[in-house]
Task: inverse folding
C-alpha cells in the first residue's frame, strides 16, 4: 500500500515552454501532498504544501506564479513549471500523506527529471 | 523544527549490521523521529519512525535514547541494495507538518 506515482519520469523541453508534472496516490486518498526539488549532489528542498481543494502554501523564496500547483482531487496533484529556463532543470519529487488511515507518514513518488534546453 | 546531525558517510560490510547514528539534541516533546533513504536517482523511501519507544519493522530497527536526544537506525543484515543516502528527520505531529531534509548519511555497503 501507500504507492505514489509521478508522470512523466523525465522530460526535456525548450526554454520558455511550460511543463506539467503529475503526482498520483494510487491506493489511498491524499488530502495533503508536498512538492520538493533536488539539484545534483544536494538534499531535497521543500517547495510547497498542497491541500486538496485549496491553494498551495509555498516555501519562502519559491515563486508561486512560476510553479503552479493544483490539487483538484484526493488522488492527484499537478506541478506546472511555467516559462521554464535552464536553471529550472532539476529533479522534482512529490510526496503524499494517507489521511484516511490517520497515518502522518509521507510517501514519495519516484521523481521527475526535468531538463530545460 | 529541530535540527539533526548525521555523519556524512559510513561504510558497512555486506551481511553485517549497519548502525546509523543521528543526533537531535533540541528535539521537542511532540516531535517524531523519521528515517528515510534515497537510492541514487529515486524518490525517498520511508523506513521507520518513532516518538519515544524503540520500533522495529521488516526493514529496520529504530533505537531512541531515553532522553530522546539521539537515535540509531539499525539495518540488521546490510546488502548491496541498501547503499543509499539515509536521512534522519524530526517533525512535529500533525497532518500538514513538513519534512525538512538535511544532508543525510551516505551508507556504502561493501561486498
Result:
Amino acid at each position: 500500500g501507500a504507492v505514489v506515482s509521478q508522470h512523466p519520469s523525465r522530460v526535456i523541453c525548450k526554454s520558455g515552454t511550460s511543463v506539467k508534472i503529475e503526482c498520483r496516490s494510487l491506493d489511498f486518498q491524499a488530502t495533503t501532498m508536498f512538492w520538493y526539488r533536488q539539484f545534483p549532489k544536494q538534499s531535497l528542498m521543500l517547495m510547497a504544501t498542497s491541500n486538496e481543494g485549496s491553494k498551495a502554501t509555498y516555501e519562502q523564496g519559491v515563486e508561486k506564479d512560476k510553479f503552479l500547483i493544483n490539487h483538484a482531487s484526493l488522488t492527484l496533484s499537478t506541478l506546472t513549471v511555467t516559462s521554464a529556463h535552464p536553471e529550472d532543470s532539476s529533479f522534482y519529487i512529490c510526496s503524499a500523506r494517507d489521511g484516511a488511515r490517520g497515518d502522518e507518514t509521507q510517501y514519495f513518488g519516484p521523481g521527475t527529471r526535468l531538463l530545460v534546453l | 523544527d529541530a535540527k539533526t546531525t548525521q555523519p556524512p558517510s559510513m561504510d558497512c560490510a555486506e551481511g553485517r549490521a549497519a548502525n546509523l547514528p543521528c543526533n537531535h539534541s533540541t528535539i521537542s516533546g511532540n516531535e517524531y523521529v523519521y528515517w528515510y533513504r534515497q537510492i541514487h536517482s529515486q524518490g525517498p523511501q520511508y523506513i521507520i519512525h518513532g516518538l519515544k519507544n524503540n520500533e522495529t519493522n521488516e526493514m529496520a530497527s529504530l533505537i531512541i535514547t531515553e532522553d530522546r536526544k539521539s537515535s540509531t537506525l539499525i539495518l540488521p543484515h546490510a546488502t548491496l541494495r541498501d547503499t543509499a543516502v539515509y536521512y534522519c528527520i524530526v517533525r512535529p505531529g500533525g497532518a500538514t507538518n513538513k519534512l525538512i531534509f538535511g544532508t543525510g548519511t551516505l551508507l556504502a555497503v561493501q561486498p
Remarks:
- Chain B touches chain A through 24 residues (CB under 8 Å).
- DSSP finds no helices and nine strands in chain B.
- The beta strands of chain B are 9-13, 18-23, 31-38, 45-50, 55-56, 61-64, 70-75, 84-92, 105-110.
